[in-house]
Design goal:
single chain, mainly alpha, 5 strands
């Protein structure tokens, strides 16, 4: 292109980009980057018209020309702009459909080489962060994770990364892909995934071959083959030295990138290779954060498969969705099982088919501590606080109650026994009661009572006796001591009413309505209107709230009616 041609095409391209941005696209495009790519094609690649784009032009532009001309530009922006530039060439009839597809394929290969060498993924700029995507709160419950050196040691043991690195090393040594796969122990079925992973991670990168000193070699021989300068050859990528022999931070970074790559791209790449666009796998890793929220317990593989099927077939009718999912699974395997198998080889999940509920639930997938740590880091970056727990001996009673109140599924079942094992049962009970007294609210008292009952039992009697004179703990202490001794309580009706209010108040706000209803019915059985009738007199800051909850959630109509009646009296009393 001469300068006038470039200016005219650039104006047309700018208008095209503006229309593209108006449609709220998945990828944003910087108009300046697009026009820069257009100019560099003319100045450095000799492409005078977009219709003259040849084999190797995309590779040279993306891997050599643009990075040298504008090294500070974000590679994500460059790929997005060149992608749209090819669409522009097709939509304006500068290239036909077949040529468009060929150039997009070359762009994909060049992109793989680019981001593999940079050890960074291509990102959607308007993709919501994890906090927004999953509507997460500002804070999740605390978790316990291994130290960084233990996590790095686990990352170094990844079988999948070992094969990907060995494959890359063999390719760099000059072996063809089939021979390299044999050397690395990579099966034919997994070769495409492992090869792409090696490139994405930067175990191998692709450089332009050096131009021959023979000037004749710079010219095409007329058979349509690309010039030597357009040929890319494998070279050692930066990650080859970073995993497994780099420092802990490098090792964990490479492993984390591998996790993100498998989740984001491996199934979508399967579909691309199969030439099947029926299922959309681009967003099917949405189940991974829910797996973190229940990482101690796990999720059935069947449930994960159902979630992925819903996401991959979102645009299809129910009948077409079922047919498409079944057809793909029959030919390629259930996508959930395929992806989980890859993640297990990476060291990100454990697949358990020997758990207590295996007969009903089937195989269960759980995150490894390594994957949980990686995902926790991403959650923290997105603005979600996920505190780390200290060693059990260093945990306070408040820390333990925080796990009970806000911890992820299964966390308290692990942490409470470890915490009590680090101190005597009576000392543990004392710490919990002291924290409950200091906090002064019903939820903390309820947490302390629950933990002491479950983990200290009869050994806590001494601690209970020590708080018999402590306001708001005294009724709980008298009830617990009587229960431990198998005796009837000597609490008055008024004290029992206060205790009922305090106990119910300690459970509100943390559970779903059906759980709250079960708690209320356990404390106030059906037909027991007497305690409810007197609750309005109770001197407790949560009386009105508790009576409201009983009136709304108690399944026994007479009890619910009595609660609503008492509520009016309590409200009048509070207003007075």
């Amino acid at each position: 292109m001469n300068s006038d041609d470039v200016r005219l095409t650039a104006v047309e391209l700018a208008s095209y980009v503006e229309d593209h941005l108006a449609d709220e696209p998945e990828f944003e495009v910087d108009p300046e980057v697009a026009t820069t790519a257009l100019q560099l094609l003319a100045d450095e690649c000799g492409v005078r018209e977009l219709g003259e784009l040849g084999d190797g032009d995309m590779t040279r532009l993306l891997l050599q020309v643009y990075p040298e001309a504008r090294p500070d530009d974000d590679p994500n922006d460059v790929v997005n702009a060149v992608d749209l530039l090819l669409d522009f060439a097709f939509d304006t009839d500068r290239i036909d459909e077949d040529r468009h597809a060929e150039l997009l394929g070359e762009l994909d290969d060049a992109e793989t080489a680019l981001f593999g060498s940079l050890d960074r993924p291509r990102l959607a700029e308007n993709e919501p962060d994890l906090k927004k995507l999953y509507n997460l709160p500002d804070r999740l419950g605390p978790v316990r994770l291994p130290a960084e050196d233990e996590l790095a040691a686990a990352a170094r043991r990844s079988p999948l990364l070992a094969r990907a690195r060995a494959l890359a090393a063999a390719v760099v040594d000059g072996q063809d892909l089939a021979a390299a796969a044999d050397t690395a122990g990579v099966s034919e079925s997994e070769l495409p995934t492992v090869a792409e992973l090696a490139s994405h991670l930067g175990f191998v990168e692709f450089d332009d071959a050096e131009d021959s000193e023979d000037t004749d070699s710079d010219e095409s021989d007329g058979d349509g083959e690309p010039e030597d300068g357009d040929v890319v050859v494998p070279a050692v990528g930066p990650a080859l030295d970073e995993w497994p022999d780099g420092d802990d931070d490098d090792v964990l970074t490479v492993w984390g990138h591998a996790l993100n790559t498998l989740l984001a791209w491996s199934l979508a790449a399967d579909a691309d290779r199969a030439g099947d666009e029926t299922l959309d796998f681009t967003g099917t890793s949405a189940w991974f954060v829910p797996l973190f929220l229940t990482w101690r317990v796990g999720l059935p593989v069947r449930a994960i498969s159902d979630m992925m099927a819903d996401l991959a077939t979102d645009d299809l009718s129910a009948e077409d969705a079922a047919t498409a999912w079944a057809a793909w699974s029959a030919e390629h395997g259930d996508p959930a099982e395929v992806l989980l198998g890859r993640l297990a080889e990476l060291g990100a999940v454990e697949l358990d088919d020997d758990h207590e509920a295996a007969e009903a639930e089937g195989t269960v997938a759980r995150l490894t501590p390594l994957a949980a740590a990686s995902l926790r880091g991403e959650l923290v970056e997105s603005g979600v606080d996920v505190p780390l727990l200290p060693a059990p001996r260093d945990m306070t009673a408040g820390d333990l109650m925080d796990v009970l109140a806000h911890g992820l599924d299964g966390e308290i079942e692990v942490e409470a026994p470890a915490w009590f094992a680090a101190r005597t049962p009576v000392d543990g009970a004392r710490e919990l009661l002291a924290a409950a007294a200091a906090e002064g609210d019903a939820p903390r008292r309820a947490d302390a009572v629950t933990l002491i009952r479950d983990h200290a039992g009869a050994d806590a009697e001494t601690a209970w006796r020590e708080v018999l004179e402590t306001p708001r703990l005294q009724p709980h202490a008298r009830l617990e001591i009587a229960a431990l001794r198998g005796e009837d309580t000597d609490l008055s009706d008024a004290e029992l009413a206060w205790l009922a209010v305090d106990t119910i108040a300690g459970r509100l706000g943390r559970h779903e309505p059906d759980v709250i209803a079960a708690v209320i019915e356990h404390i106030i059985p059906a037909g027991a209107t007497g305690p409810v009738d007197t609750m309005w007199r109770v001197d407790h800051p949560d009386t009105v709230t508790v009576l409201t909850a009983i009136g709304e959630h108690h399944p026994d109509k007479p009890v619910a009616k009595a609660a609503r009646k008492a509520l009016h009296k309590a409200a009048d009393r509070a207003g007075a």
